[in-house]
């Protein structure tokens, strides 16, 4: 009975690994776009930063709709040690949009 349980768990883990491997983009598509950050702003709405080439697109994502909110130049993502206490994604996003408006 224990062998059967281990066999089922092994098959489950193997299948999950295979699904993850199959769903990953390959070749040219792997480097074309990358989601940099995202935050939920409602039950089904999100704000997402998508890296596309040398620019970042700030997108509003809702069911059935994707809206471009802003386009900012590509920047380095701060590491967790560089992020100060109390400085979260919404504050950072607001600062990036304000910088773009001044440039």
Observed structural traits:
31% strand; alpha+beta; elongated; four-stranded antiparallel sheet; 2 helices; 103 residues
Give a short overview:
By secondary structure, this protein is α+β, with helices and mostly antiparallel strands. Helices cover 35% and strands 31% of the residues.
Protein described:
The protein is an alpha+beta fold. The chain has a domain at 28-78 and 86-102. It is 35% helix and 31% strand. It has 2 helices and 4 strands, in the order H-E-E-E-E-H. It has helices at 2-23, 89-102, and strands at residues 33-40, 46-52, 55-62, 65-73. Strands 1-2-3-4 form a 4-stranded antiparallel beta sheet, with helices on one face. A hairpin with a 2-residue loop joins strand 3 (55-62) and strand 4. It is elongated. The model has no long low-confidence stretch (mean pLDDT 82).
Strand content: 25-35%
Instruction: Report, as a whole number of angstroms, the end-to-end distance.
Output: 68 Å
Total strand segments: 4
Instruction: Return the average pLDDT rounded to an integer.
Output: 82
Q: Helix-strand pattern, N to C?
A: HEEEEH
Number of helices: 2
Output the structural class: alpha+beta
Q: What spatial order of strands do you see in the largest sheet?
A: 1-2-3-4
Helical residue percent? 25-40%
What's the SSE blueprint?
Layout: H1 2-23, E1 33-40, E2 46-52, E3 55-62, E4 65-73, H2 89-102
Antiparallel strand pairs: 1-2, 2-3, 3-4
């Amino acid at each position: 009975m224990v062998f059967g349980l281990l066999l089922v768990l092994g098959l489950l883990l193997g299948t999950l690994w295979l699904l993850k491997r199959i769903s990953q983009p390959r070749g040219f598509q792997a480097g074309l776009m990358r989601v940099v950050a995202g935050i939920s702003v409602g039950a089904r709405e999100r704000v997402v930063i998508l890296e596309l080439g040398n620019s970042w697109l700030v997108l509003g994502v809702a069911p059935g709709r994707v809206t471009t909110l802003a386009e900012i130049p590509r920047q380095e993502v701060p590491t967790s040690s560089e992020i100060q206490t109390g400085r979260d994604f919404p504050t950072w996003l607001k600062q990036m949009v304000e910088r773009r408006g001044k440039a």
